[in-house]
Amino acid sequence: MVESHEKANTDADPSKSEVQSEAVPAVEPHSTYSLFLGCVIPNRYPMIESSSRALFERLNIGIKEMEGASCCPAPGVFRSVDKALWLSLGARNIAIAEQNQANIVSLCNGCYGTLHEVNHEIKHDSELKSRINTILDKTGKEFQGSIEVKQIVEVLYYDYGIDNLKKLITNPLGLRIAVHYGCHLLKPSDLKPFPEDPDDPHFFDELVEITGSVSVDYQNKLMCCGAGGSLRTGNKPSSLQFTLEKLRNMRSAGVDCIITCCPFCQLQFDLGQLEVANELEPGEEPFKIPVIYISQLLGLSMGMSLEEMSMIKPDMKGISPFTSFDPVLEKLARENRLAPTGDDHHE
Amino acid sequence: MWVIIMSQKSRLLEFNTDIVDVLSIEKDLEKIRACIQCGACSAACPSGNYTALRTRNVIRKALFGVQSVLEDPDIWLCSTCFNCYEHCPRTIPVTEIILSLRRMAVSQGHLPDPLKGVIHNLMNKGHAVPIDPKWSQLRAKLGLDPMPPTVEKYPEALVEIYDIFSAIKFNSRIPHR
Question: What is this model's ipTM?
Answer without folding.
Answer: 0.90
